[in-house]
Design brief:
alpha/beta, single chain, DHBP synthase
């Protein structure tokens, strides 16, 4: 993809996110639907778009550990290794420390799933936007997760505020991330491998 086109698309994504819109965008795992993770009205749009039950929390993407540390209780060496050192995309569920995220985003136990994507497009978008972005699979609730743009339901493509063009698609894992939960005693429990 042409670099200028990529910069233009990232700028457009960030503008749409700032205005409370939803995005359909490629991630390091599968295609996702996202929004500004600090905007409760935008988060609500995603629940509605996906016809998703509010009891099913969503995760956030952060550019780096510094961004993660602004929203969660602590990032020790074990968590840092899980976020940065895993060979496969890994989401870590951990306690929130501040109410800077949208109140309708975290799980009922006060935790949030966090991932730091290695994908260039996501990294550039997150750094330019400067805040976490919600990431949930680009499918209607209960339907299969799309590994490519071509697999996304046309209904969703029409409902989101902005669709990143398929030309921005990079080689991805093609499946959802591994999910681990940080427990209160500091140990880690695998939720999804």
């Amino acid at each position: 993809m042409h670099i200028v086109m990529c910069e233009d698309i990232i700028e457009k994504c960030c503008h749409k996110l700032s205005c409370g819109a939803t995005l359909l965008y490629p991630t390091d795992t599968i295609w996702g639907i996202g929004c500004d993770a600090t905007n409760a009205a935008a988060v609500e749009k995603i629940y509605s778009l996906k016809q998703r039950d509010h009891s099913k929390s969503m995760l956030i993407l952060c550019a780096d550990v510094d961004m993660v540390e602004r929203y969660v209780s602590s990032v020790d060496d074990n968590v840092r290794e899980l976020l940065l050192g895993s060979s496969r995309p890994t989401t870590v569920i951990m306690p929130l420390c501040k109410s800077l995220l949208a109140e309708n985003l975290s799980a009922s136990d006060g935790t949030i799933g966090v991932r730091i994507p290695k994908m260039d497009f996501c990294q550039q978008m997150l750094r330019h936007f400067g805040r976490p972005v919600v990431s949930t699979s680009a499918n209607l609730s209960g339907r299969p997760s799309p590994a490519s743009y071509a697999e996304i339901d046309e209904v969703l493509k029409r409902r989101v505020g902005f669709c990143v063009p398929p030309e921005c698609e990079e080689k991805t894992a093609g499946r959802s991330s591994r999910i681990v939960k940080l427990l209160s005693d500091g140990s880690v429990c695998v939720i999804r491998d």
